[in-house]
Each structure stands twice: as C-alpha cells, then as structure tokens.
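Running low. Any example?
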Amino acid sequence: MIAAPSDKQHSSKRSIIEGLLAYGSAELVNRIVRILVVVIIARQLVPELVGVAALTLSLFELTRVIANIGVGQKIIAAPDQTLEAVCNSARRIFWFWCSMVACIQLVVAVVLFTFFQQGLAAQMLAVLCGVYFFMPGGLVQCFRLMRARKMATVAKIGAVQTISDHLLTGALILAWANPWAIILPKLLTAPLWLVMMRRAEDWSVNPVHGYANRSEMINFGAAVLATDIMLALRNNLDKLIISALLGVSALGSYYFAFNAGIGIIGTLATAFGTVIYPYLCNQKSLADAGSTLRFILGAGLIIFSGLSLAQYILAPIYIPLIFGEKWLQAIPLIQILSLAGIPLLLGAIASAYLRASGRAALDAWLGLAVCVAALSAMFVGAHFGLQQAAAGWVIGTASVISAYSLVIMTKFFKTEQEISL
C-alpha cells in the first residue's frame, strides 16, 4: 500500500527529528567532554601558549576547508541509476584534491616559519598535513550514509572521533603542558574515523558502473567549496585579526570565549544544515518542500532561541565555576558572541535550501557577503578593544544573514502560495 502524502510528510518530519536528536545528543556528549578538556587547558596553559595552538588550528581549519570540495553533495542528490558512477568519480576527485590540499598546507607552514618566525606553529601545521591522507578513503562512504539518511550513524562516528580527540588532548595536557598536546590528537584520531566509516558503509569502486562527468561534479562542488571557504574565513580569520591587532594573549582569551560560547551553537547550526539537506533534495512537489521548510524553520528557531538565551544568562555563573577566576574577562565576550546564534541557524537553513535547489553559486556569493561584512566590522571594532571586535563580528554576521534569509524565505513561501491558489 502506498502511503498517503500526509503519512509521508509525517515520516519525513519524524526522520528529521531523529537526525537532529542523533546529532544533538552526540554534540552534547562531545561538548561535555570538550568542556572538561577546556577546563584542563585553561588551568594548565597560560593564554600565550593557548594562543600559539589557536593560531595553528585556525590555519589548519582554513586550509582543511578547501578539502570540502562539495562533490559529496552530488552523491547525496544523485538519482539511484547514476549513484555508483557518481561515487566512482567522486573517489578519484577526493584523492586528488586532498593531496593538493596537503601540499597547500605545507606551503603555508613554510611561509609561517620563514616570514613570521613562528617556528613551533609551522612545525605543528606541517605535521597536521597527515590528516588529508586519511580523509579520501572514507568520504564516499560518509556521503552514501547521509544519502541513505543514516544520520545517527554519521553522528556517532563523528562523535567517537571527536570525543577521542578531546580525551587524548586532556590526557596529554596533564602529562605534558605544551601546545603539541592540543595538536597531535587531531592527527592520531584520523585513522579511527576512517576505520569506522568504512565499516559502517561497505562500498568499493566498481568500474562496471562507469564514471560520472567529473567536470559537472567539480563545477557544482566548486560553488559549494566557495561557500565553505567563506564560512571558514569568517570563523578563523577573526582570530588572525585579533592576533595581529591585539596580540597573542588577547587571542587566547577570544579563542577560549569562542569555543566556550558561540562555537557550541555554531557547530550545532552546521549540524542542523547537514541533517536537513537530504530532506530538501528531490522534493516531489513545492507543497512538500514548503511543509518541510516550515517545520525546519519552526524547530530550529525554538531550539536555537533557547540555547542562545541560556548561554547569555548562564555565562556569568558557569565560567568562574567551571573554568576558574582567571577567565572572568571572557564572560562579556561569550555573551556578545551568543547573540549570533539565531543568524547562524538562518544561514545554515538558507545554505542547505539553496544547494538543494541547485543554486550553489548564489549561496557562494551570499557567503562572500557575510564574510566581508563580519571581518570588516571586526577589524574596525578591534581598534577599540576586544569586546568591540567581538561585537563587530556579530553585527556583520547577523545583519547580512538576516537580510538575505528573510528575502529567500519570503520569496519561496510567496511562490508556494501563488501556485496553491
């Protein structure tokens, strides 16, 4: 018996909730462990050493985002009849691209050592190049799981790797109070992710199915990559701006505040976008898409409003209690950054919707606008102080995302209403 449309919509909404719960619970456990590790870091390392690690990780994240070429989005959206051909081509692209990214990061490390006299940061960045040789072997499997809407499995694998990273970091910090203790676990846990992903999805290349058009896949992926680069620049160049204008000590305080504050909500917003993307792809009708999008917006606003409010109100309580009195100066920063929670959610939803509707290029241009606005406002604010820099980042991010999200959603729902009439 074929399910009625209402039954299908109900099943889809239930599946979305299950996916969100899987990612949310995994992230909750991850954050609890991460908070414990941040407590250890905060008590064992001075802000200057935290700043060196923050500089290295910021450059690593900026480089690593280039590996997210966006080809995986084509696997999720591929029709059944072309899926295997798309996966075959994707695997080749992933290996080539990740190798190129490793070379790029090595060049960045050389520049950091030669021109900026940051020897320790350069060494750590060079070691992290090894991560890129574990990624290609499991990326196709990861996106196939997402295509099958097995979000709980993907979330579990990500959580196990990240929690292992945090636990190893905490253990190393206690035994060796050095920035290397924050860096090495990123590399040491990469094989764990690869093994778990390949066990979860039994797939290998089969030339019988042929290969999809790589040019078409790369063109689509380039637009997705551009958006991810803009997001990475927004989330990492802010730390470089703080370091350049206010010093490494200020960077240590900002890095702590970012990870203890908006970093949590930002990660959840990204996970939210990841979960909803498969449900926005290949909708049978505009009415189905509209119903799904309304549900996503409503659920997201309820969840993220509560999270942002709780973080703003509770920061003065949990910061000195958990992290110690020396991080009291970070409380205003955490409160300021928490105000970006709802805009980050709207940005994740709008991005997923645009990619699912084949407008990845527009998503990239909008990401560029947000990046320029956020970093420009932060640069201006940094000339007046650390809190003003954080406020500038929030204002720049929120103003642009809120504006284009409102336009996109209003236009979509107006079109849906006109067609229904």
The radius of gyration is 21 Å. The CA atoms of residues 122 and 331 lie 31 Å apart.
